[in-house]
UniProtKB/TrEMBL annotation:
InterPro entries: BROMI_C, BROMI_M, BROMI_N, PHAF1/BROMI. Residues 12-139 form the BROMI N-terminal domain. Residues 137-146 have a biased composition (Basic and acidic residues). Residues 173-833 form the BROMI middle region domain. GO terms for biological process: non-motile cilium assembly. Residues 147-159 have a biased composition (Polar residues). This is Protein broad-minded. It comes from Mugilogobius chulae. Residues 851-1185 form the BROMI C-terminal Rab TBC-like domain. Residues 137-159 are annotated as: Disordered.
């Protein structure tokens, strides 16, 4: 390699001066010398022009010229022979290997030596140009240190800078002299002066000198001397903050080894007299470990940018320091305990923040766990021993000494007792173990062999130990007592509960659940517990149980695993134990826990555990026999009545008791409200009589946008939809003001918008039929009105306003008002009252199309408001007269939408029976090729012509069976029938049509109704006089339904012209029959005040199947009415029936909802959990599945055109 010439020196001097001038402003603005050095050291990271400086370009070119051949040779050697594996192992490995080999080469050493010598000359030349300033700086050092100056200054800052900043350039000869002066054989004064000079020099110059290795050894030796230790730590601290990891790790490892070796001679006993941290030797160790701890917490931010071996050296030196003393102590068990590095580290970082940061990133966590497993497992052993020792000895601690470590926050302390230091180490150990447990490879380190224990300590045993510690010290975790044993244990348990795999490995184990429920079992059995403070401890236990039950695995553990041992070694489910204990708390049957101040919080905690179970379909099935809803309702009524009759208090104590009672009342209402999450739970809530109060409470929280609970991720959307699906639920929503708030919010978004907000740029005009800002309100209305019973409660007997004049400030406040303003827009007054007529009316028509998905809802709207006539009239008025005098409907978005709704409600059938027109105008010559109409009937093009199918040959075996079965009362007849049915459905299902299906239905229903084991309801003994039947009247809704069924039957060519009278007569027969089997009720529900709300679609369907034969249809329906299946497929039959409990009959909730929908939701969660979660996120419920397909179709059409 060629040496640098004199011309090179002159060029380098010019380039260096140019570099310093380019960054002069940045250096001058630095607040201190250390910051200026930091700027220079990290110039490549912070200056985007770094690689454009000529000085940098020169150095790069010089390195390429000097080392290019060496690098190429190393790369070639790696790609041959054994080096092929290194290349395959990754690019980083190749770069690292080439870099190491190059730095070890002779060419690299020669290049560095030549560059150093040349730069020294260049710097000296620059320094000599400021001779006067140099002399002044030398004089300052001469006066300060009484010795010849070993450093020279170059003032690189302006005279009017914010600080008088200088840069110290120190020569190699001076560093060599400093190294010699720091030798331990030199007098202390000489070493002290050398340290002062060293601290004033830039760490980068010192760390890069050739004598750094010797200097580092001398500095570590000086660390053991009290007079010199502080200056060495000062230099190390500057080096940590301004040097790369490859240098700082040398300092850190040297510092760790020095502290480790020094502790061999330090024997400070941990006794009652305490440890004074102001003692020189302890204070020195404390400062050294403090510096190490600061580096431990900061090094994680940058060690990923360096080779892994650097990080491994730092971690290994730390573990070596923390384990060597404990190893010596473990060999001499039984002797007096002494102060260890872990005690001092625990005082400085009591919650092991350093370890949490090391375990946070995968890069460092892998190395930490590897070293713990292979070499330093004793550190885990020490942590476990501390937890075990604390558990065994905590009963002897005085209450005042347990948490005194926390007093450091309020004042400085100098003396710590041995008990306090042991407690600090326990907290540190517990935090360390907690971080190990949350990672899979950390849990794999268990079981761990511990002294005095025959068997290794497993994960389960560790959790049992921690829970027992919580039992001994049940101080509630809070900000003011963050270091209490119970608070620390609860933090660990919370972390485990939040992670599925952690909870499964650690908490979902029988010994852990038994330990958690041990005090509960003892109290249930009438025994005394060993708890020091049962109410507080049990509250903490309930918190953990609730978090476990909030997960699917935890819920399954409580409901389906017999992991609790009762008397006589019988095992039972945890859910039963929790429910029994909660009932006893509610009924105040536990003597020591009946005080109101105690019972309110404790009982609320265990109710919350039950709530995590009964707000699922599966959990409600298990807990329903305990009648928790009844107990909660009783407690709520007692609290409400006591609060209503009590006189207003005057004293502070009475006021506090009043506030506690109000909070308890809210807790009960919240718990009752969560029954409404499931269909069957909603029925139970309705039976308590508290549904109105619960919905009012929900609405108050909903308006404040409060979370449902700490364990619930989503809001009240699903709960509102579940409640709105029933008549009593939607009535409660209406009375609470929820529906009014929803309508007002919709109106403000739809009509008012945000026009009062300052507009920076115009809002783009929405091209969607429903603007995205209104979509949330639209979906909320769909959820609210998805059930026909809910619509009947909100619209039944309600008329539309149809005012002559509407003010612009008149806002609708109910669903009828909304229909009047957005759907039934049949006057100029309504049109002029809308700011955005087209958008708002389109919204109303889209909502109408969704409502009409349910035929009962459509019948109600048509019978009360004549929706079809109104739409036809609007189409007739929206006509443009042509030259020939004929009118043609104007083609616009509203006429297209009205046309769609008219076809949708007028033509009955599925996709193969009708053709629905598009809901948007297309581009091209024919924007809308479908004909519009303004009067009925609907044009034929919207109806698919019905064609008679070819005669299908029937099944001979089935025909023979049906023809030969004279006695259908034979018990074996149904089995044979089912075998024929299964065979046909598996081979030729198309043969089950027409007369074959009719005969099969008749005989199967007749057989089941005559069998005592199959008959669920009493046999139908119906004999009505013809006169009374003919005098019966059908509601307008029933007449409309009859007309639709007759029209559909005519289309299918099943009915004749005279069939309408037979269908009407059949409807009257069934109405008379069913009315005789309904309870008399005084309910304010509209659906219970008259006959069945809606049309009896099953009766009409049977009439069509029988091809208009009224007698056969009536006989089949009467036979069917005695079977259990009729309660689920025939809503009109079970409506307010006398054959169900009175409370259920008066609830207005049918079995299709509280039974069928309940089990559908249970199966959905079990078999398709992701689909179930999608329902909850969207705000829909599986109970809407009976018409969910139509709803999704309508919603998709409402958000975008076809």
């Amino acid at each position: 390699m060629s040496q640098l010439t004199s011309e090179d020196e002159l060029e380098l001097q010019s380039l260096l001066k140019q570099l310093l001038q380019s960054i002069n402003d940045r250096i001058s603005n630095a607040p201190s010398t250390e910051c200026a050095e930091e700027i220079l050291l990290h110039l490549e990271e912070t200056d985007k022009n770094f690689h454009n400086y000529e000085f940098v370009k020169y150095l790069r070119q010089y390195m390429e010229t000097s080392l290019g051949a060496v690098v190429e040779e190393e790369i070639k050697s790696l790609t041959k022979g054994d080096g092929q594996h290194a290349v395959g192992s990754g690019h980083d490995t190749v770069v690292h290997s080439v870099t190491c080999k190059t730095r070890e080469s002779t060419e690299y050493q020669q290049m560095m030596q030549a560059l150093k010598n040349t730069m020294i000359l260049v710097v000296e030349s620059l320094i000599n140009k400021f001779e006067e300033d140099q002399l002044r700086k030398e004089e300052m050092h001469r006066e300060a240190h009484h010795s010849q100056s070993n450093s020279q200054y170059n003032d690189c800052s302006d005279s009017d800078s914010s600080f008088n900043q200088s840069y110290t350039f120190i020569r190699q000869e001076q560093l060599q002299a400093l190294t010699e002066n720091l030798d331990s054989s030199k007098p202390k004064e000489v070493r002290w002066e050398a340290l002062l000079v060293l601290c004033s020099a830039p760490p980068s110059d010192v760390l890069s000198c050739e004598s750094w290795s010797s200097l580092r050894k001398n500095l570590c030796a000086a660390l053991t001397e009290p007079d010199l230790s502080d200056h060495v730590l000062q230099f190390f601290a500057k080096s940590f903050s301004s040097s790369p990891l490859n240098v700082t790790r040398e300092i850190y490892t040297s510092l760790a080894k020095t502290v480790e070796s020094s502790f061999f001679t330090l024997k400070v006993p941990l006794d009652s007299s305490g440890v004074d941290i102001t003692r020189p030797e302890i204070s020195r160790f404390l400062k050294q470990i403090r510096l190490m701890n600061d580096f431990q917490k900061e090094v994680t931010t940058f060690w990923i940018r360096h080779p892994e071996k650097y990080m491994e050296e730092v971690i290994e030196s730390t573990f070596s320091l923390l384990t060597f003393q404990s190893e010596s102590a473990s060999s001499s068990l039984g002797f007096e305990k002494h102060l260890e590095p872990l005690h001092l580290l625990a005082l400085l970082d009591i919650k092991a923040t350093w370890f949490k940061k090391w375990m946070h990133g995968h890069y460092s966590r892998t190395v930490v766990l590897k070293l713990l497993e292979k070499k330093y497992k004793s550190l885990i052993v020490v942590a476990l021993q501390e937890c075990i020792h604390y558990k065994e000895s905590c009963e002897n601690y005085k209450e005042g000494s347990k948490h005194s470590v926390n007093q450091q926050k309020t004042g400085q302390r100098s003396v710590y007792t041995g008990t306090e230091l042991e407690y600090a180490l326990f907290v540190h150990s517990l935090s360390l173990l907690g971080m190990l447990l949350i990672y899979t490879n950390g849990r794999k380190l268990f079981p761990v062999k511990v002294h005095k224990y025959k068997d290794p300590i497993s994960l389960t045993e560790l959790l049992v130990i921690l829970i027992n510690i919580m039992y001994q010290h049940p101080r509630a975790s809070s900000h003011s007592d963050s270091l209490s044993p119970s608070g620390l244990v609860m933090e660990v348990l919370w972390m485990l509960c939040e992670r599925t795999e952690c909870a499964a490995d650690c908490l979902h184990q029988t010994p852990v659940i038994e330990t958690l429920l041990a005090p509960v079992l003892a109290l249930l059995s009438g025994h005394k517990t060993k708890l020091k403070c049962p109410p507080v401890t049990l509250t903490l236990v309930a918190d953990v149980l609730a978090r476990i039950a909030n997960t699917n695995r935890g819920l399954d553990l409580f409901l389906h695993r017999k992991n609790i041992v009762m008397s006589h070694n019988e095992r039972t489910f945890a859910a039963h134990i929790i429910a029994q204990f909660t009932l006893k708390l509610l009924n105040k049957e536990l003597p020591g826990l009946s005080d109101p101040e105690v019972s309110y919080s404790l009982c609320g905690a265990f109710i919350f555990v039950c709530r995590q179970m009964y707000n699922t379909c599966e959990g409600l099935q298990v807990l329903r026999p305990y009648g928790l809803h009844k107990a909660l309702a009783t407690a709520w009524k007692q609290t409400r009545d006591g609060h209503a009759t009590s006189a207003p208090g005057i004293s502070q104590g009475v006021s506090s008791e009043h506030e506690n009672a109000l909070m308890w009342q809210e807790t009960i209402l919240d718990s009752l409200l969560n029954f409404a999450v499931t269909p069957k739970g909603l029925l139970l809530l309705q039976q308590t009589g508290a549904i109105n109060e619960c919905v009012e409470y929900m609405f108050s929280r909903f308006t404040k946008k409060l979370q449902v609970s700490r364990c619930e991720k989503f809001g009240y959307g699903v709960m509102v939809t579940q409640i709105a699906a029933t008549a009593p639920g939607v009535l409660a929503l209406n009375s609470s003001g929820f529906i009014r708030a929803l309508v007002v919010e919709l109106w403000s978004v739809l009509e008012c918008g945000n026009e009062d907000v300052r507009v920076v740029r115009p809002k783009p005009t929405s091209m969607d039929p429903i603007d995205r800002s209104c979509l949330k309100s639209f979906l909320s209305l769909v959820n609210l009105l998805s059930s026909s019973q809910s619509v009947w409660e909100l619209l039944g007997r309600q008329t539309l306003a149809n005012k002559d004049e509407y003010t612009l400030r008149e806002v609708p406040a109910s669903i009828p008002d909304l229909i009047d303003r957005l759907i039934a827009v049949n006057s100029d007054a309504k049109i002029h009252s809308l700011f955005h007529f087209e958008q708002s009316h389109t919204f109303g028509l889209r909502l109408l199309s969704v409502l009409c998905c349910n035929l009962d809802t459509f019948l109600l709207l048509e019978s009360q408001y004549n929706i079809c006539s109104m739409l036809l009239q609007r189409q007739k008025e929206n006509v443009a007269e042509l030259d020939n005098g004929k009118g043609e409907i104007i083609l616009d978005s509203l006429s297209v939408e009205r046309n769609y709704v008219l076809v949708y409600v007028s033509v009955v059938g599925g996709p193969s029976e009708r053709k629905l027109p598009p809901r948007s105008i297309q581009e091209g010559d024919e924007p809308f090729p479908w004909p519009m109409f303004s009067c009925l009937p609907v044009p034929q093009c919207y109806t698919v012509e019905f064609k008679d199918t070819d005669q299908i040959s029937s099944d001979p075996q089935l025909n023979a069976f049906l023809a030969s079965s004279e006695d259908i009362t034979d018990k074996k007849w149904m089995e044979v029938c089912r075998s024929h049915y299964r065979r046909i459905m598996a081979t030729t299902p198309t043969v089950l049509t027409g007369d074959v299906l009719v005969n099969l239905l008749e005989k199967a229903v007749s057989h089941l109704s005559n069998a005592d084991c199959e008959r669920f309801f009493p046999e139908a003994l119906y004999k009505a006089e013809e006169k009374s039947v003919k005098s019966a009247t059908l509601l307008s809704v029933e007449e409309l339904g009859t007309a639709i069924c007759f029209r559909y039957g005519r289309y299918l060519k099943l009915l004749g012209d005279e069939s309408v009278a037979d269908l009407t007569l059949l409807m009257k027969h069934i109405k008379v029959f069913l009315c005789s089997q309904r309870v008399k009720t005084t309910s304010r529900l509209i659906c219970l005040q008259d006959s069945y709300p809606g049309h009896d679609w099953l009766t009409s369907t049977v009439f069509l199947v029988m091809k208009g034969n009224m007698d056969r249809a009536l006989r089949l329906l009467l036979d069917l009415s005695s079977l259990l299946v009729s309660a689920f497929i025939w809503p009109a039959r079970i409506h307010a029936s006398i054959h169900v409990p009175l409370a259920v009959a008066e609830s207005g909730i049918g079995p299709v909802y509280w039974c069928t929908a309940h089990y559908v939701e249970m199966l959905l969660k079990s078999e398709l959990p992701l689909v179930h979660s999608a329902f909850r996120i969207s705000g829909f419920t599986p109970s809407q599945v009976e018409y969910i397909e139509n709803m999704i179709h309508s919603i998709n059409n409402s958000t975008k055109g076809h």
